[in-house]
Each structure stands twice: as C-alpha cells, then as structure tokens.
Amino acid sequence: MLDLKDCSRISFSYGGNLLALASNTTIEIYDFLTFKRLSKLDSHAGRILSLLWTNDDSRLFSCDERGVICEWTSCRGVSCGKILLSCHTSYVAFMPNKNAIVAVAGRSLKCVSDRSVQWELIVLII
Fold it and tell me: 119: which strand partners?
C-alpha cells in the first residue's frame, strides 16, 4: 500500500512501473503495478525538493534544501554517492547526452558530472 502521509514530491520512472515518493527527508520507491514498496531511501538531512530518474530508469537523483544531491540505484535502493553543493538546491535535471545533471543551486546553475561541479552559471539580478 502506498504511504502518502507527508508526501511532498512524486516522480514516475520513464518506463512507468516505478514510482518514487518523497516525504521530508525520506524517499520510498514502489512498483506501481503491485503497489509493493521496493525500497526506503534515507540519506538526506534536509527536506527533499526534487526527484529525477535517468532515461533508462537505472538511477534516481534527489536534492534537498541543504544543497545535497544523492544518486541512487533504482532497483536496489543503494546510494551511489552524494554531491554537496553547499547552498539551497531546488531542482535537478538530467543531461543524457553528457551523462550529467544540472542543478538550480542558490542563484546559479551548476553542471555536475562524476560527482564534481564541471561548470557554474551565476545569475545576476539587476
């Protein structure tokens, strides 16, 4: 059974059979066809703001308000690593042709690949 208590973010995998639900600092992954919980992911200290599946559904990225991006293997629910951006991170998007993600972090866009920032675009407000 799906636990929707305190659910603040939801994301379907591209194949449509996996569903990720974020509640505060925890992510639960369900098989949407059976509603069976496959894994519970606990690695964030801040409230989760964004969930993102890779195009092949093999990995899930999540980011929180403290600037932490976590990478998970979707089938096993194992953390592949963390990236600390040291500022409020509100959204992540996947760049499949570069095998990288772009994060909205503070007033900048940061491109992350191989767990390090490759480039940063700072937005100036005039």
Answer: 111
Closest to 67 in 3D by CA, of 95, 94, 91, 88: 88
Ranges of beta strands (E only) in the chain are 9-12, 18-23, 26-31, 36-42, 48-53, 59-64, 68-73, 78-84, 89-95, 100-105, 108-113, 116-122
* Cα four-point dihedral sign 30, 12, 44, 54: positive
Cβ atoms of residues 100 and 110 within 8 Å: no
Separation of alpha carbons 112 and 94, rounded Å: 10
Distance CA 32, CA 91 (A): 24
CA 97 – CA 111 distance, rounded (Å): 13
pLDDT tens by residue, 62-105 = 999 998 899 898 766 666 777 878 778 888 888 877 788 899 98
* pTM to 2 decimal places: 0.83
